[in-house]
Amino acid sequence: MLTVAALYHFARLPDPAAMRGPLLDLCLAQGLCGTLLLAREGVNGTIAGPRDGIDAVIAHLRSWPGFEGLEWKASHADQPPFARMKVRLKQEIVTMGQPDVDPTASVGRYVAPRDWNALISAPDVAVIDTRNDYEVAIGTFEGAVDPGTASFRDFPAWWAENAHRFEGKRIAMFCTGGIRCEKSTNFLMSQGVPEVHHLQGGILKYLEEIPEADSKWQGECFVFDQRVSLKHGLEQGSHGMCHACRRPISDADRAHPAFELGVCCPHCADEYSDADRERFRDRQRQFEREGRA
Description:
The protein contains nine helices and 15 strands. It has helices at residues 16-29, 51-62, 113-121, 133-136, 155-162, 179-190, 202-209, 251-255, 274-289; strands spanning 2-10, 33-39, 42-49, 71-77, 85-89, 109-111, 125-129, 139-141, 170-174, 196-199, 217-219, 221-222, 229-230, 240-241, 248-249. It has a five-stranded mixed β-sheet, covered by helices on one side. A four-stranded parallel β-sheet has the order 6-10-9-7.
């Protein structure tokens, strides 16, 4: 059983490039796989491997000035959920494209999972899902607003067009692990929203702590690794992934006439050229020869 660690932390990192090499070397030495993103605003990512290796990397990150309070969320996998280990340098650890947004200055009010149900049930609270549309499609909280955004960069424009819908409301926001809400709550506060809350630890912490019988979560939670989705108790969900468009696919999608393993699914059947699809078929045949299909 492998430990999967989802982590992020906003703190000033003056020279991310200098930190990259030693961090990657440590991850490889500990037999880990996954991706970590480094930027001047902090670190974000998911890694998997032996628990001792995870602990070693967490201790290394917490040794950086300003990162002592880094927290992480654990789940488990029977097989490595990533193909390799990468440490990448980025402009932002989660891309919103708003240079004035600064989660180290202020964020919304954290709400523990045990208090979340009561908050989102209040009549004066509007609940907003900050994730991408394909993530929302397989699961979200009861009554949540879906902005229908294809990427996090689209959220500020969506808010500008829809802010009038939420006048007089308290706002409650959530995302997979909490990182998007660090930025989106800071953004809404900068737009003059007087009371903004967000789910502490994100959906993953909620699914870990709240029994299914008491839950207001509906469906499964998309995760960006080969497990594809998780359900209550952070057990692996039922969704697979289309290897063409990388969207989650259900049993119904796999039974659809537009589905072809490794080539296309009902969500992307019209998005690729014949040449693209033939290339995807070649890739799928290679996977099958290697026993990875």
